[in-house]
Amino acid sequence: RTKQRGRGTIEVFDRTMQGTMLRALKLEQEMRLALAAHEFLPFFQPIVDLRSGLIAGFEALARWQKPDGKLVSPAEFIPLSEEIGLINQIGRRMLATSAKQIATWQRSFPDQKLRVSVNLSSKQFGQPDLVEQIDAAIAEAGIEPDRLELEITESILMENTDAVIATLKAIRARGIKILLDDFGTGYSSLSYLHRFPSDALKIDGSFVRQAHKVPLSREIIRAIVLLARCLGGVVIAEGVETAEQLATMREMGCDFAQGYFFARPLPATAATELIAANRKW
Ligand code: C2E
Ligand code: MG
Ligand code: MG
Ligand code: MG
């Protein structure tokens, strides 16, 4: 952390910093207990197939549900969990629980072939047994591997490249799709894209939400759609909040969309009700 600061930067260890560190320590302690108490669980946000208008699957998004029912957002606990290494255990839990949910939906809705995508932190790629964890989640749930998808961000492309590529290839060899999350907000060069195998680009919500009013955002989306086609993949628009944005994404040839317009991330029971309602957008 200090390494990243420039030479000659003077760090003042004052009371504010001490307070911040104490809060982080307390949070770390709480998170370890929460993990043991199974308080980390996935919520599910529907992903809609823009051709049929039907739910194609869900993104699993981590939530920390305190015993009093209060929910903590991943923005609050994922960064710290990455710093202290707890992300590996949280990630493993997310994989296992999401795979079990796929199995449950498979039994209740056998014709729908719903898929669930799970977010992977680039830190998780530091684990030599990541692929084994994925295999174990699939085997324990008894699902077909192609029902599970994994979301990674461009930041991963900066990590230990050859090892990461080998892991991604092993994952895809199992029929598991790799989705590039928040696409357009990172710093990856285009040359990375064809070295790193992926099956879909998820257009970041910041472009989607501006698309109907900012011509440049529309051009960027058009370019991303083209790029995905060249790479042989599909495009998912994130953060769709209005009917107008949905219409724009359809017009621009996006294959799938997700966002508050359809539904917020939901607890498994509510997500199940949504599938049962068989709604068409
Ligand atoms: P993400 O993977 O890009 O997930 C999309 C985020 O956008 C989610 O926030 C989702 O609730 C939110 N979102 C969905 N539709 C809309 C919309 O229409 N408008 C707006 N404004 N937001 C929308 P969430 O659940 O708070 O997650 C935030 C981030 O935390 C995720 O971004 C992901 O990077 C990370 N995260 C969540 N769960 C996990 C996990 O299990 N593992 C890891 N490594 N990261 C996770
Ligand atoms: Mg994601
Ligand atoms: Mg995203
Ligand atoms: Mg994001």
Summarize, please.
This protein has helices at 15-36, 74-84, 87-108, 130-141, 161-173, 190-195, 205-210, 215-230, 243-251, 268-277, and strands spanning 40-49, 55-65, 71-72, 115-119, 148-153, 177-183, 200-203, 234-237, 256-257. The protein is an alpha/beta fold and 281 residues long.
Descriptive report:
The chain is an alpha/beta fold. 45% of the residues lie in helices and 18% in strands. It is built from ten helices and nine strands. It has an eight-stranded mixed barrel, surrounded by four helices. α3 runs parallel beside α4 (130-141). The termini are far apart. Bound molecules: ligand C2E and magnesium ion (MG) (3 copies). Residues 181-182, 202, 238 line the site of one magnesium ion.
Which molecules are bound besides the chains? ligand C2E, magnesium ion
The best one-word shape is globular
- The first-to-last residue Cα distance is 46 Å
User: Would you list the SSEs in sequence order as H and E?
Assistant: HEEEHHEHEHEHEHHEHEH
Radius of gyration: 20 Å
Q: Number of helix segments?
A: 10
- Unreliable stretches (pLDDT < 50, length at least 5) are none
- Average pLDDT for all residues: 92
Q: Give the number of DSSP strands.
A: 9
Please state roughly what percent of the residues sit in beta strands, choosing from under 5%, 5-15%, 15-25%, 25-35%, 35-45% or over 45%.
15-25%
Q: Roughly what percent helix?
A: 40-55%
- Biggest pleated sheet: 8 strands, mixed, barrel
| Sheet with the most strands: spatial strand order | 1-2-4-5-6-7-8-9
